[in-house]
Amino acid sequence: MLFLLGDTNLDPLKESLVLAGEDDKEVLLISDAVHLGRAAGLAELKALGLETVYAEKKAVQDRGLTLPGGCKVLDMAEVLELMFDHQKIVNA
Amino acid sequence: MATLTLTLLSGAVENETADFALRLAQSALDQGHRINLFLLGNASYLANQEVPFQGDKGLTPELAAYMDSFRLTGRIEDLAKAGAVIHTCHTTEYARGVEGCPYLAGVSRGNVGVSWTKFLMTSDLALTLG
Asked: Which of A79, A80, A81, A83 should we substitute to test contact with B (largest number of B Cβ atoms within 10 Å)?
């Protein structure tokens, strides 16, 4: 299941992770949430059981961030492909 | 070709979500997919034509240019021209006192019970962004 996160408050995400059950959990960071793609945030997300962390490219570029390799930066075409692949997306 | 319905809850400026949604919609259209865009809640403000202010703006040109960068009306019209089907929720327009304001070209008055439901029932993927 893909979770979509738009800011750095992890509380809604923590509450909604249960919806994934035993499914793989991935998260796409957009807007200010891309700050969580940095090392410390990435560690928090991994600790929550999110196997794969993505960040939207323009939001990353607008903030001048360079993210570690553990966070996959996607352009909008790749974001769209990710969404179609998942079908179930939870906006946390 | 797939059909994607985006339900947008945010208007311009309040966050980056509307910008993200419109870029996602444009990308989908560029790839040959169909887009339904439902403007709900504060996003219903995006449905209307702008009303230019005729007096002294009280803004420096730099600040005006910066604020202009948040305006999304042109991009909404571009999506409609490119084939996106765009409806509003008239109830949320009514609650904001803007029901009856002229729509942008390509935007239609809609509602949750009919137009949004049709969008959802004919979509391969539906996503709410707020």
From this structure: A80
* CA B63 from centre of chain: 24
For B58: left if phi > 0, alpha if psi spans -120 to 50, otherwise beta; the answer is: left
The backbone torsions φ and ψ at residue B118, rounded to the nearest 5 degrees and listed phi first, read -60, -40
And the tokens for B23?
């870029």
Partner-chain residue, chosen from A6, A79, A91, that has the shortest CB–CB distance to B24: A79
Q: Go through the domains of chain B in sequence order and give each one's CATH number.
A: 3-49+59-129 (3.40.1260.10)
CB A22 within 8 A of CB A52: no
* ipTM (interface pTM): 0.93
From the list A7, A84, A23, A80, the residue with the least C-alpha distance to B30 is A80
Distance CA B129, CA B16 (A): 10
- Would you call B41 helix, strand, or coil by DSSP? helix
Q: pLDDT tens digit string along B86-107? A: 999 999 999 999 999 999 999 9
DSSP B103: B
Give strand pairing partners of A52.
A26
| CATH class of residue range A2-91 | alpha beta
CB atoms inside a 10 Å sphere around CB B14:
14
Enter the pTM of the model. 0.94
Which residues of chain B are within 8 Å of residue A83 when distances are taken between CB atoms?
A: 4, 125, 127
